[in-house]
Batch of 2 targets.
Target 1
Amino acid sequence: MSSATSASEAAAAAARAKKLNLEKASNFMRQYRDPQSRELKKLSANQFMEVWSHYDKDGNGYIEGTELDGFLREFVSSANVTDVSPEMFKKGSSKHHTSPTKAANTECHAVSDAMLVELKQCFMEAYDDNQDGKIDIRELAQLLPMEENFLLLFRFDNPLESSVEFMKIWREYDTDGSGYIEADELKNFLRDLLKEAKKINDVSEDKLIEYTDTMLQVFDANKDGRLQLSEMAKLLPVKENFLCRQVFKGATKLTKDDIERVFSLYDRDNNGTIENEELRGFLKDLLELVKKDYDAQDLQDFEETILRGVDYNQDGKINRKELTMILLALAKHNQEEEAAA
């Protein structure tokens, strides 16, 4: 190969790299769209993490406020279309993940403020599942097209029934009993998830390591290289924290039926007491009402405090009478807080 040819190829490669860098600088999402169809390409686990890290600028685990405005503007503008509409964000729309019309080829350089308000409203209705006004990592994963096997790890269609189930899984995978899920334990957990979905044969060991690293980056909020209880709880959510229901906020009087319903939820083996993982599942839900970031030590300390207050027979378990005392105290506490506010 002549030196002239090598030089021209190097120049062409440099030009392509420069163009890509310019596109990233002007619109980060454009690099993930097909140049011809303008459809979003399937993202690898690493690419998904790149998108998340780019828009979650303050690293607080949410895309919100001006971050969300920036993401929506670039998501829409990267489609290179003039007839952008809020329909793009409606689940089930044929326009989902694609440019609204392939015929239009005039670039939409900007999204007006009025359109942004409407887009944001439609987007949040479709993807803000917990209605907190911001987008978390799981909600973004529903919008962006991703490798099917990686998407499985988010368990969208299969949340856990209760925190009791969560604590059983925690005990199973915290094999060294350290109170944390370390990288190798997380990899084992993800491997078993893929086995359960009959997809493990489609995923190489290198790909599994990539998934593990990405999940750690995504959910390891304090960046200590492992998952504490509250971080794992975001990776493996339960359907609902039953103790967040209105009846426990002190607005209405707790009935015997309410207490019985809670007792049945946590007494999974129906032996008349809440104990072991049942107790820790209940305490996890209780702890989440007052503390968003917590680890296994926090849960243990909380267990000792609660049992010291209500476990009169000192059997390390909670019976119906003891549960009633806790729930009445919770309702009273919430009532007092509302009155003070």
Target 2
Amino acid sequence: MRISTKHLLTSLSALLIAAPTHADPLTQPAAAKHGTLSFQTTGNVTRVTINNGPINIIDPNLITDLLTYLVSIQPSTTTTTPKVVIFDSSNPDWFLGPLDTVLTHNPITQDKITATINYSYLAPLLQNITTTAFIAEINGRNIGGGHELALQMDMRFAGPNAHTGFFEDGLGLTVGGGGQLFLGQLINKGRALEYLLSAKAFDGPTGAALGLFNEYYPTGAALTSAVNTLAQRIGLFPQDALNDTKSALDNYLNPSPALLATDVTNFLALNGNPVSQALQTKFLALSDNETDGAFEKNLPEDITELYQ
């Protein structure tokens, strides 16, 4: 099944948000249906903790829970939305893993297509919910699709265990959910191509030096303390100001919905290539179906093992 750019653009445009918010106290979000997210609200700040198996893989359960939560905090005249959302992980080794390769591996079913398209909706929501600042607190591996989502949050802060990068080109694919576009914006075209085409990883200090991370902290405690302090400070100020500031920068700097939709359709086209499918078969075997083994832990560096 081929998804057209026009179809995706129509769907993504429907996620553009522009509405005032209500002033009632912020309430605790509803429990995530699949239990992959937990929530802690303090003042105008909500901390969202990811907990989805050994590597926090981006599978249909996590995609559904993320999409449901993000849709629930769209600006509304009848509900109050958080000024800041911090994403962290309960797993000390993984912030976010890759998009589940099973979703893109043949045979392609309607359920797999639905999950992949729902994944592509997450980035526009992170960008277009302009009444909320999204912060990634990264102190673990953040690989593939997880790296892509973190890139499309508003700020990223790294701890000593941060290890992040893409391996999609090694599978004969492209970073098709907007991640490569945002990476190029953050660290410049030449650097982005260096890391994308060679599947190189960033550690915390390197990522901070290149502008991928706002700041690097040498301990997890220092990371969490700094992020909390920043979030609470942002949360003091009026939400209308936050909305206008984020909207202005997004409108000026972000890829258009048309470019994001084209990125997705190009990914899906490459995914139909027999070369990519053969590489994905080998990838699933080497990673033991993406379990927390030595191969998965050393991504993106280990992607070259597909060619040995």
